[in-house]
Amino acid sequence: MTTDNLKTPAVALGTWAWGDSGKTGDGYFGSHLTQAGLEEVADKAHAAGFILWDTAAVYGMGRSETVLGEALKRFARSDYQLSTKFTPQAAGTGNDAVADMLEQSLARLGTDYIDLYWIHNPADVARWTPRLIPLLKSGKVKHVGVSNHNLSEIELANRILGEAGFRVEAVQNHYSLLYRSSADAGILDYCRNHGIPFFAYMVLEQGALSGKYSPENPLPEGSNRAETYNGMLPQLKALTDKLASIGQGQGAAAADVAIAWAIAKGTTPIIGVTRPDYIDGLVRAISMVLSGDDIAQLEALADAANVNTRGWWEQEMEG
């Protein structure tokens, strides 16, 4: 049994957009990123005490892990935690596809262990979950979690790991003001009742809730996220205005308030960081206090926006 419990930070750092750092610079997010710029982000995060970095083998098909590994080289391995993922949909054909994908991730990240290893999307819980057990026993993986799994899949994974003396130590799902299916489906309650940290990704809906975009100033054209969100921006205006006005009262930005909301709901937000000033926003979000009234108003405006931001890779959580 793993003796040390997973230490959960207030906020984890997301690097999905770091996979855009190929030669074209116009990946999923339309980000224009440089290695030097990302190293500056890593330095600032490190100085501010943010230590958990979340990536996946499929972010930019390995590019995110490679760039992150390079950026973290300057720090002692004990000074940061790495979270990466096995994606069944991208599994190889070898005898042990999970161990194979892990080895590739370790090589790209330049490390010999992963602090938190996830099964990224459910494909066949009974088939893939047992493959985590030898990795935990070997010490190459310290803790394990499941991402994008529904409640019955989380319970099944927990049972399978439990038979070997381990357990699901973290759950990671899409959760934001606009997309609360994990709460509605009882997953947040299950995590709370079982002492399992819940990591929320897409808290800012890929920037649509950051307050930086509007119908007049849409997300970068030609990116996948622009295709998904630009058409919704008119419906989101009342909500982003409210986020901004709550933020103004506390010397903070709209994005900080959306992150503070996710923290207030008992989750650990994973926030994509591509610029050093994003770290300042995380520092503000952590210290912010939202009233019950603020939270209720934000949720009411989010409901009124009436948009569905479920990703194409996600299953319905309720049912």
From TrEMBL:
Q: In Gene Ontology terms, what is one molecular function of this protein?
A: oxidoreductase activity
Report one GO cellular component. Answer: cytosol
- Entry-linked SUPFAM superfamilies: NAD(P)-linked oxidoreductase
Output the Pfam families linked to this UniProt entry.
Answer: Aldo_ket_red
Q: Where is the NADP-dependent oxidoreductase domain?
A: 11-302
UniProt keyword terms in alphabetical order:
Oxidoreductase
Question: Could you tell me the superkingdom of the organism this chain comes from?
Answer: Bacteria
Q: Which InterPro entries match?
A: AKR (IPR020471), AKR_Detox_Biosynth (IPR050523), NAD(P)_OxRdtase_dom_sf (IPR036812), NADP_OxRdtase_dom (IPR023210)
What is the protein name given in its UniProt record? Aldo/keto reductase
